[in-house]
Structure formats: C-alpha cells, structure tokens
Amino acid sequence: MIDGGHVALRAPNWVGDLVMATPVLDAFAADARFERVTIVVRAHLVPLLEDAPWRERVRPVAGPREELEAYAELDPDAAVLLGNSFGAAWRAFRARVPVRAGSALNGRRWLLTHALVPPTRGGRRLPIPSAHLQRDVAGLLGVAVPDLHPRLWVRPEVERQVRAELEAAGLRAGERYVLCAPGAAFGAAKLWPPEHFAAALDRLHEAHGLRALIGGGPGEEELMDAVARASRHESLSLAAAPRDLERLKAQVKGSALVLVGDSGPRWVAAAFDVPCVTIMGPNFPELTASSLERCRVVRLEGLECAPCLERTCPLGHHRCMRDLTPERAVAAADELLAAGPGR
To answer: Would you identify the CATH topology of the domain 156-339?
Structure first.
C-alpha cells in the first residue's frame, strides 16, 4: 500500500480484459489519496474509454518503446499492472518504477515489488475470474473496488450517427436487431462455425423478429460475410462498413441482444446491460464468471479435452465448438429476452 504520489495504471491489452478493468480504473480515479492517476493503454483501445469521466487521465501508447518513453516522462511512484503479460512487468521494471504491483503469473514474480499470487491446487493455478484478479491487484495498493460491474460510455451523438449509418446500410427505421460478432482475436479454437451462427440468427428472427447485424474486427470480413451468406433470412453484414470500437459501443448499446463467441463484445454488452449469449469452447468458464446477470455462457460439457486453452484445436476435431448446436444458443437467448430489460 502507498499513500499519495503518482500512480500509473497499466491497462490490459485485450478488449474484454480492458472493459473488465473499468471498475478498477474508476476506483483509482476516485481515490483522493493519490495526487495523480494516469491510465496507460494501447492506442488502438482508447476509443473504448472515450467519454469516461476520467478520460483526460488516459495516456495512449503505440507499442513497447513508447510505453517505456511514457514511464520516463510520467515518472510515476507506482505502476499497477492490470494485465498479466510478462512484457508489461518487464517495462515497468526497466523504467525503474519504485512500486510495481501485479499478479505473479507468466514468470514475472521477480519483476514485481508487490505481487498477487493466485491460489493453486496440486501445483496448478486455480481458475478464478479475471475481474476478481484485477480487483485483488488493486488491493495491493489499498484500493477497494466494491462493484465489479463493468461500465462504458458513449455520447448520444455517436449513437445517433451509428444508427443513421446502419439505416443507410439497410436497417429499417425502428427495427430491432441482434448484433452477432462471430470472430475471436485469440485464435481459431474459439470460432463457432458460420453455419451455426446463421442457424441461430434465423431462429431468433423467426421467434423474436430480430434482424441479424453481423459485425467484427479487422481481418474478420470473410467470416462476417460467411455468416450472412449462410443465413436464410435477410441479414446485414458490416464487412464493408466503417468499424471501430466507438461504433461497436453504440451498436451494442442499441441492440436487443448480442450473440458472440468468447470475445470482447461480450463485455461491452455487460457494460451496457444488454442481453448476451456467449459461445465458449476451449476456455475455462471460471475465468469469465462475473457480470453474468444478463449473460448466458453456452458450452459443451463432458469433453475430456476441454478446456484446453489452446489457440487452435490440438486434436483437429474442434468438437467443443462443432458439436455445440444452434438450438442451445437460441434457448439461452429465449430465456434472456423473456426476462425483460436489465438494470
């Protein structure tokens, strides 16, 4: 624990982990003990944090070299590492930040002055929710995070602009939609087959009248179009439309439902209390077991090989995703939609 001084929060590098970290960012920004709080975040993720009440504290960095330069310029008294990468700890160590707090994962314990050691059993780390891990890292500096519900912000004018763009692309005025994000930056092991996504979207259209809006990140255009081609009902692929994280926030907030793999948009939906069905394959469900009030995680139980945590299926059959039927996702969506609006 430290009192006073300048704290640099090194934000995570993944979309979902960054959204999960927003309660921690809130707590540090509100803590009057610190003279200054700076949030160091990769530049391409900054749009996620636009319109936050502490936006002026965000310091974008383009890569490792700029991150070191930022530490030299900021000269913080402490660095709080909210992600688990070795590189982030190494750079804080190289920059000689006096206090370096973070999880003792990925062989970086020796780089930290204040380390959180996750629980183990039989020499293996127990899977605990990432949001809980971030909260406990904040506790190393005496910062309490009472509410782990993620939060994001988007200006009304951005919402209006995005809705106008969607209607120009073919969405009808007032039409309700399900936002589908079939991609996964982690790797192919997290990908549900396009025909499964399409079948689930068709059933959601028939049961709830929801138009399918298919989005994704850079490089996922072919996958987005594949889902649209496999759909029997008219769907709208955004593969040729402008896409960025600020637009994603508005698209999620304006949707009736989000259907997504185990990836970042699931957490954007949680931040806006939008119902979300998440398709999970090779990951431990315990790692993302937070903010589940309006989310249903659908996975195939009983496979000896799952969860494997691999980027591609090491056995080649990819059963954890291929054998997971569209009907399971639709049933989860039906349950969420029947429950009505969230908080």
So the answer is: Rossmann fold (3.40.50)
Tell me where in the chain the CATH 3.40.50.2000 domain(s) lie. Answer: 6-139, 156-339
Backbone φ and ψ for 127, nearest 5 degrees, come out as -70, 120
Could you confirm whether domain 6-139 is CATH 1.10.10.10? no
Q: Residue 54 to residues 6, 29, 153: CA-CA distances in angstroms?
A: 15, 7, 11
- Check if the beta carbon of residue 11 is closer than 8 Å to that of residue 41: yes
Q: What is the CA radius of gyration of the chain?
A: 21
Angle at 149 between CA 146 and CA 298, to 5 degrees: 135
User: Coil, strand or helix: which one is 298?
Assistant: strand
Strand runs labelled E in the chain:
6-10, 36-42, 58-61, 78-81, 99-103, 114-116, 120-121, 124-125, 177-181, 211-214, 235-237, 257-261, 276-279, 295-298
pLDDT at residue 310 greater than cutoff 80:
no
**Angstrom distance (rounded) from CA 147 to CA 131:** 10
Does the pLDDT of residue 268 top 80, yes or no? Answer: yes
How many CA atoms within 13 Å lie on the side-chain side of 110?
1
Say whether pLDDT at 343 is over 60: no
Residues of the chain above pLDDT 90, percent: 74
**Lowest-confidence region among 65-79, 185-199, 252-266:** 185-199
